[in-house]
Amino acid sequence: MQKWSRVEGLKNGGARTTQGRVYQMVSDVKQDQAIKPSPVDGLLDFCARIGRTLMAFLQVTGRLGLFIGESISHVFRPPFFPKLVARQFMDIGYYSLPVVGMTALFTGMVLALQSYTGFSRFNAESAIAGVVVLSVTRELSPVLAGLMVAGRVGAAIAAEIGTMRVTEQIDALVTLSVNPFKYLIAPRVIAGTLMLPLLVLIGDIIGVYGGYIVSIHKLGFNPNSYLTQTWDILENMDVISGLVKAAAFGFIVSLMGCYHGFNSQRGAQGVGAATTNAVVSSSILILIFNYVLTQVFFS
Amino acid sequence: MNDVTPKLELKNVKKAFGPKKVLQGVDLKISPGKSLVIIGGSGTGKSVALKCILGLLHPDEGSILIDGRESVGLPPRERDQVMHKFGMLFQGAALFDSLRVWENVAFGLIQGRGVDRRTAYDTALEKLHSVGLDESAAYLFPAELSGGMQKRVGLARAIAANPEIIFFDEPTTGLDPIMADVINNLIVKSVKQLGATTLSITHDLASARKIADEVAMIYQGKIIWQGPVSSLDRSGNDYVDQFIHGRAEGPITDDIKARV
User: Fold this and answer.
1) Using CB atoms within 10 A as the burial measure, which of A167, A234, B26, B83 is most buried?
2) Taking the domain B1-85+164-231, which CATH number applies?
3) pLDDT higher than 50, residue A154
4) Chain B, nearest residue to A173 by Cα
């Protein structure tokens, strides 16, 4: 009976090595049993696996750190490509407006409805305006806008740059004496960082308006008192913290899209994986940094 | 004659990816104005060697001399000056999807060298004419072109800045035999007009015979034979013989069997 078995860490008739995998074709089960690793080998194997995972993690972290450093340095160093930045303003900012606007509108509307359901039990309906405006400006608008833009823009950036990588267009840029960090990465990072706060500002207004519509037309609130309550409870810091978060999220989304696209592996599968990784990593980072920034602003 | 500084010289260039040693000491010389073609099977290190020369990959060891000057480890600004000497035709043409044909051809002039758009446009049209394309093609996008036309545009882009050294990566791959010959002729014509030195990598022997002054064969990360194209058929090297005759049996397949 022919059988393939993979033996890790064993080489030269059982002598232990620290590197590589040895693939051996074993002709029968007896031989297979003869080279079965001992418990000590198993433990070493386990440690080696942890070591490899740690090394891989450090490698990715280091590579990402260098990528971020290089990207930021090219944002501030000439030559600049204003036309490309303007195009990215349109792609990342203007074309994301419908999706961010719709998200903010319905979030504000749902928030008013749900708050009413809860607060009416304690006769605290008057707090709805405050809950809507604070939730929208501090948390929901920046986080949801960030996540929506991660899905729309982060994926598009990773797919575009990934395709450029696998079709050698990035190599072509280098051979034509154009730095890909300046030409591809910097415009996207600038546009992402500057455009998301604008989107969030618009999202804030639309979100509050969504709560207003439901409160006035469905829940029967007085328009003037609703607006007065909204205005009274809102402070500058509520809006500013949301905008700062938005800038951080825009930076994360554009950078993750660029990083994964730039390091895309060969083939359609590689580009697909880069796109997925860009969206997943930027979404997770948005949630983590949202907590960190909230802690910084309001602790 | 031997005193002439080679336009491009590789000395003991090594490159590995993890445990996989792709280049194991490549030595190569190209005299000014000469055309060298590197032949070899897939995975023998042709593309990696080319990418090391272009600075897209950093060799682990060895030196790469351009006009007698070391180009490995140059700071970015000096690297840019070296890159200005280069032109490159990629295997899949690598045209920028979002730009029109003329903008692709003029890209290096406008973005890389700061030439104004009007002058760059005129140069692009002139180069497009020289590869057999007229003004009507200039405003198309790469996706609207056939494979052969994309290669022509890629060639026009490679020669747009009148480079001193032009690299061709599998210039005829994916083309029908007639279009492949057309591209070969265009390469020969363009190179003659410019007086450029060229380095090509291919496994298309018809292409190699047409465009080469000299041929080198790479095998297992080393140059195992180099000589004039006229002596390719009597190289006296069994590996070269098997490769150029496309035989299934020979030392290359014996090595593969031995490794398995």
Assistant:
1) B26
2) 3.40.50.300
3) yes
4) B108
| B80 contacts in chain A (CB < 8 Å) | 177
Domain of residue A19 covers: 3-60
**Tally of domains in chain A:** 2
Closest chain B residue by Cα to residue A171? B56
**Any domain includes A66:** no
Residue (of B88, B133, B41, B161) closest to A172 by Cα position: B88
Q: Say how many CB pairs under 8 Å bridge A and B.
A: 52
Contact between residue B52 and residue B59 where contact means Cβ atoms under 8 Å apart: yes
Q: Of the candidates B91, B97, B112, which has its C-beta nearest A178's C-beta?
A: B112
Q: Is the pLDDT of residue B96 over 90?
A: yes
User: A19 and A143, same structural domain?
Assistant: no
| Residue A68 falls inside a structural domain | no
- Describe chain A by its helix, strand, coil percentages, rounded to 5: 80, 5, 10
Is A12 domain-assigned?
Answer: yes
Asked if A53 and A185 sit in the same domain, the reply is no
Q: Where are the domains of chain B?
A: 1-85+164-231, 94-162
Q: Do A178 and B19 touch (CB under 8 A)?
A: no
- B202 with B232: CB under 8 angstroms? no
H or E stretch at A8: strand A3-11
Residue with tokens 């980072």: A285
DSSP A35-74: TPPPHHHHHHHHHHHHHHHHHHHHHHHHHHHHHHHHHHHH
Locate the chain B residue with the closest alpha carbon to A172.
Answer: B94
Q: What is the pLDDT of residue A299?
A: 76
Give the A-side interface with B, CB within 8 Å: 19-20, 163, 167-169, 171-172, 174-179, 183
